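Recap for those who missed Tuesday's class. We walked through two folding examples back to back. For each one, the amino acid string is listed first and its predicted structure tokens come directly after. Nothing is annotated here on purpose, so try labeling regions yourself before you check the end of the notes.
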Amino acid sequence: MADVQTTTRPLFGGAISFDVPKDYIDASDLRQVPDNQEVFLSNDSDTAIIFEILGAVQDGGAASDMYEAANVAHDNAALSATLTTPPPPTHVVPAQTQHVQSASELQTPHPTVVTGIQKVHKFSHDPSGAPRRGHENDAPDEVWIGLALWRIDVDIAGHKKKADIVCTANVPLKEAAEGNPNGVTSEELAKVEGWWRNAVAGMKINDWNLFGDEN
């Protein structure tokens, strides 16, 4: 199985560095993307990688709930969701505040990573996950989901910053939808998961001014 060739992409004006396959397309070249997102699309499948900067979850919230909520936000009204990694802690692990005098002393935090399988109907915007009109008899697709969460909590000479960074990988599976030309095989999924996990481990924050100061 050949290695996937990746290249480091500057996200959010270079504030974050993240490795993406060389042939992935920046979705902002095709359509408008919200300012708090960076989206990359596979050139030969429906695989999508979404980076988001979100407000920090202040008081717990189950990590598994974040897994589901992140994908509902991307219009994946799931009929079911099954984690394929060990269950995360009942509550999101609080970020440990980094106290420094200069941003140059800060370290990119370690991510929490979960993966799972969702059953979804394509283009369904019904919260129940029901298929869209005219496709009531369509079988649901299975989508592999990878979710990485970085918790930002820093104090730079008295300037406090808090945020959550979420990176979601959405990979439709070919075997689950007969005749789906844009799904991936199990071998192709292994490639995606491999490069994505490596990219998550190597993600780097270059400019902490990306995150606004707390009031």
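Example two. Treat it independently of the first, because the proteins are unrelated.
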Amino acid sequence: MSDLRKNTLVVDFSVLPSRPDPSEVEEFVMKQVQLKMSDVKVLQFHNIRHCVLIDMVDKETAYRYQKEHNSKHYMVSNKKKFAIPVYVEDGCVFVRVHDLPSSMPAAVITDHMRQYGVIHSIGLERWKHYFPGIVNGVRVLRMRLTRPIPSYITIQNEQTLVSYAGQHKTCRFCNMSIHPKLRCGEKPPPTETAMQTESSNIINLDDFPTMTQTQQQQEKAHQQGEQQHQEEEEEENEHEPDKQQQVQQCTGYISDTNNITTNGNETSDDSSTSVPIDANNKRRLTTNKGNEMKKPCQGSQGQSGGSNTEIKGRNFWRK
């Protein structure tokens, strides 16, 4: 802020989401502020600050306009109303207090902030872009500072961020100059209770079990799978002797009567003699390589025509 400006009245349009047209600025200054040309020496549009700077004829006139019109008139932007600050540029700065409850009275804030300088006014800041026209909870104090304000202060046990143009930024914990990317030695370590409370508010631990719980579940499932596999093997071993017994049993054959020896003598008959076969026996043939003939198993005993007939496997060849 330049010290060269004297008796300068500022009509601040930077609170608006977008810069107003010159015609809208003229209408506001002439109709709302009711500016008289006889009180004006210089009227200047400031392109960077988005405001109008008016050099008044004397200091008393500038402060009279400030008292009568500061934040008492509105401009509409995006169908929202914004109060326009009108103040004297006299070396004061705008101090923004960010994080206090909206219910905290302005008198409590000004009583605390007087230790840093002279307070000319206090007001509420409004959103410009995201929620145009809605109060955003930031208190704006116009002050002539007598001492620097730290970046973080505490008012009635409520810690808040404070910012203003030309501020020397300080650490939240030690109030010394900020030390980015370095851990502050005054920062208290988080307690176990605070960490548990914070994590319980974010996630449900039942939905995200620890690694130990996950490993226990995997081991339990693996043991159950091994136990089931062992039971299946034991059950299979129990049936293995029955299978071997069935394989070892010889099967009976229905053979040609010309190759049947009865009581040591060969018989010849046109009709074939049938040999009863046990129900549990199956026909089994072994085949050798080449043109070798198939050999039967050693025979079983059967009955034909009410007489005992012995079938000798070693003398029986199937043609």
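Answers for example two:
The first strand starts at residue 8 and ends at 12.
Confidence is low (pLDDT under 50) at residues 251-275, 298-314.
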